[in-house]
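Give me the fold.
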Amino acid sequence: CENLKAIPDKCFSSCNRVTSLKLPDNLESIGQDAFNKLGSNSEVESLILPASLTSLGYRSFESSKIKTVTLYSNLKSSINTEAFHSGTVTNVIFEDGSNPANTMFWQCGITTITSKSATPPDLCLESGNPTYESVFLNHSIPVYVPAASVSTYKDANGWKDFGDNIKAIGQ
């Protein structure tokens, strides 16, 4: 699997007994519905989307049982909508400034966001347009960011609605 560059559409859709999922470090794309409905018996609770990933297909992880998703910046412009639609994702970790698509976590019960980037990722539904709502509609959840960047996040479009819920990592 080390040479695997792409996972095709619907490749693992509705697989019911997946016990672990480690994506190859050189993976570049995941197709539409590739892991859609990753089964009710699945034990996969966390997913690291590798830094090499540049494309994430529409509803690629819809209705999966994954709880934590880690994103890297290569996905800035090529995450299709509803990638984790109706899933059980509760924790999102931005490693280095990745920007989520407008409905990437649609109907997920996100309870914690961690961004390790000093610069706030763009969370506006229409990238760069501050008049649009944030990707995350629940602004009462904790957001953890680098200590030196707390005030920057509190002033940034898409993030400022979290207000005092923005705290330093480790706080």
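The two ends are 39 Å apart (CA to CA).
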